[in-house]
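#lab-general

N.A. 3:47 PM
ok so I finally got the sequence cleaned up, no stray characters, all 80 residues accounted for. can someone with queue access submit it? mine expired

B.Y. 3:52 PM
send it over

N.A. 3:53 PM
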Amino acid sequence: MPFTSQKFSVANVSLKNVSLKNVSLKNIFGSFNNATGALFREVVTTLTAIINSEEIHATGKIRVYGYIKGLLKIETALTA
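B.Y. 4:20 PM
back already:
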């Protein structure tokens, strides 16, 4: 089932449909040198705000840091 929202639409992507893959990656990661409004940027920004929050316990911050590291690895694999 594809992810949809008012702002984003990410479809199921196969290697046969390069155009659809390009659209999905653009929605997730944004354009080269312009990630404004990209879903990935929004997630990482939110997770970073959690890490910087005074209200979150240290254990939660460690988990969030791990999520960010994992997301950055996924970004590298998907865009390579």
